[in-house]
Amino acid sequence: MNSSNLAASENKKPFNQERILSVDILRGFALFGIIYSHMVFWYTAGPLPEHFYQDHMTPLSIVASGFYVLFFIAKFFSIFSFLFGLSFYIQMQSLIKYGDNFVARFAWRLAILGMIGLLHRTFWRGDILSIYVPLGFLLIVFRNISNRILIIIGCILVLNIPTQIAQLFNLAVNNTYQFFAGDHDAEVVLYYQVVAQDNFWQMCRDNLLGTMDGIRYQLSSGRLIITFGFFLLGMLVGRAGWFNHPDAANTYFRPIWNKCWKAILGIIAMAIVLGIALKGFGVDFQKSPWGQFPFLILWDFFNATLALFYISGIVLLLTKRFWLKWLSPLGNIGKMALTTYLTQSIIGVLLFYHVGFGLLGKTTPAENIGIGLVIFAVQILICSWWLRRFHYGPVEWLWRSATFLKWQPFRKPSAAT
Question: What share of the chain is helix, strand, coil (3-state, %, to 5)?
């Protein structure tokens, strides 16, 4: 790639379109869900010994963990993925409008994000950026597909249907829906060592060695294709211009919100009825893969529907002056999403891992959530203070400067004065 070509169109200032407040607020909301999900169990990105969870389950921790399972796990990464696809389309249109080579520029932008993700994964095994990068390249391939095909493929993927079909086939052949046979107990021991015993260099080495475990999880759970499905839906919404429509909340998002809450109630009712029926037939869920499988399908549907419920619900709330006032601070943290995400990982590792304060097991899940809420509140304050003085977050500024191979304006003139 020719660096002079990449830098040539900078004076036309692509990517400088006016930001959409509701999108930034959604991004900030997603970051809240991400810190909750990671903090509750000591910012770990892998399994710990089972007794470790049980030993710390105070009544408040049971509530915090229940909220995590029902309302957070596997929902907020979907919102983040939806927003990635939406931003992809906005950036694509901006680059094309200003005459830039979109494919070359965005591919280079993804390559830089991949380097950031690799550094992040070295420090913390739960990195999502290194997953986004290859899927981002695939999104470039899908950018010109028709809306009809896009929504069909997107819905199939976000509902995890390909994984469910593969699991059903494996269940029929091998009497298990698990794709990868592994020694779970050994994995638990190894990961506990990373968190509780490794020094910094050992932790980095073991995190990189654990990359294949992460890939196997992405494949076996279907999270990889769910992520790409939300990429596609985000790009589709961007193409339809919903966030630019003056009455988008009532015209587009309210019908989705209404359908989602009804679907959620239906899924919960089906799970209850199915559970009672199977128990009546004497099926032991813990020992029967066939008994577990219908609940896995309902779980995937529940997660996807609740993610869409959150997205449409936030957009609707923002039409109310009261909620707009109270949710607007999330917009500042959303503008600094990459900096915030990386900072959360650094804080989490330093708090709980052996390389830092080693609080693993010294706090309960409920206490972890309290700590996480304080951290997030402080991040909102810092982001608000920062953006009054600077155009971008520090990592966003470096990423943008590297994208265009030219230092971007950083400090706002009023702040310099």
Answer: 75, 0, 25
Nearest-angstrom CA–CA distance, 291 and 239: 41
Paired strand residues for 354: none
Residue 14: Cβ within 10 Å count: 21
Rounded distance between C-alpha atoms, residue 300 and residue 305, angstroms: 9
Given a contact cutoff of 8 angstroms between Cβ atoms, the answer to whether 338 and 393 are in contact is yes
Q: Measure the CA–CA gap between 23 and 29, rounded to whole angstroms.
A: 10
**Amino acid present at 280:** G
End-to-end Cα distance, the chain: 39
**pLDDT tens per residue across span 363-394:** 999 999 999 999 999 999 999 999 999 999 99
Say which amino acid occupies 186: A
Please tell me the pTM assigned to this model.
0.91
Q: Exposed/middle/buried for 287, CB within 10 Å: 0-12, 13-18, 19+? A: exposed
Residue 19's pLDDT band (boundaries 50, 70, 90)? low
The owner of tokens 């790639």 is: 1
* CB distance 214 to 120 below 8 Å: no
Q: Of 384, 387, 376, 279, which Cα lies nearest the Cα of 32?
A: 376
Q: Between these two residues, 129 and 9, which has the higher pLDDT value?
A: 129
Contact 312, 254 (CB under 8 A): yes
The per-residue pLDDT of the chain, averaged, comes to: 90
Residue 7 has pLDDT above 60, yes or no: no
